[in-house]
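Handout, page 2. Input:
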Amino acid sequence: MKRPPYWLMLTLLLVAMSELQTMGMLPDMARSLGASTAAIGAFISIYSFGMAIGGPLIVWALRLVPPKSALVGVVIAYAVLEAAVPLVHNYWWVAALRLLTGTLGGAVFGLTLTMAARLAPSPDRIASSISIVLNGLMFGAVLGLPISHAIATAWSWQASFVALGAAGLVIALLDLRTLPALPAVSAQTSADELQHFRSPRLWSRYLVSLLTIGATYGAFSYFTPLLEQDAGFSPDTTTVILFGYGLCTVVGNNLVGRYADRHAVNLLRVGHLVLIGSLVILALFAHLPWAALPGVLLVGLVGVTMNPALVVRVFEVAGAGNLVNTVHTSVITLGVVAGSAVGGVAISAGGTTAAAMWTGAVLAVLAACVLGAQTAVYKRRVSPQPAQN
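Output:
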């Protein structure tokens, strides 16, 4: 595998870190902006909303621009807006900048995955190329919070935004110098891509992605109280376990990426079964440390790590177009938001974190059922028809 996918991985790492950075600086930002901690926490949802809704709009506007130029331009705009956050001192202006950076972040997500697919050395290496790029998402989820917290503690929360903005400009320069130039798609190809959105097959595969990621985040969002309050781990031990969770996502992502081109459906079937089993174990036995620890690590191994297989299945029916990829990113982001929200509602109704684990398990069962229905329909279509007399 040549170097370009690794530069794309760094590009995706940047926006993944930005998505979670405010989580590590909640008290400092709340004091500085005169807002509640909950209001600052909403910055994550605002960023995600920008990714889900605005990302496809940016990509559609740049549909006839060569991919490298589009990506570098979006990253530069992202870096400038990220670094501009410390210049404003009003909550709503910061919220507006988070919305815009989220919009650009969603575009970066779609553009990097599309370039990874186009740069794959052969059609049967697309998943491997994509999994390298998606490592940026996995590492960003692990590093974003602690790094932003460390910078805010050592200097200020504003320094975190300046640091990521500066990193964005450096990465844009690296992308400009290292990524190969790819031709822009024609107006006809772009118009043809829109036709894919009329396909029920595409939307059913988007649905599997939504449910799979929703199941994972419906549980993951509440792992900290589960580990500390239910399992009885100390805060320091919980931090180590969550870091181990992050490492499991990296390992799982690369394993899935290695085999997803030829075995996407089987990988998803196994992944859903393990995810369901892990969440049921957590729901029933979270109060037992020896059960909670492997349950959390298994969710890391088979949750978001199914992304390469999910992406490949979308490619199978709609190709590797920028808009198809970016809308898929939007669906995945909505899965994150919806899963976390449904898990929170379940906890409010049930009173314990076990309710969120059960919610995640139900979503994973639904994902497995939709996948099963898709494969059953496909088998009926390709099975030989009896001869007519």
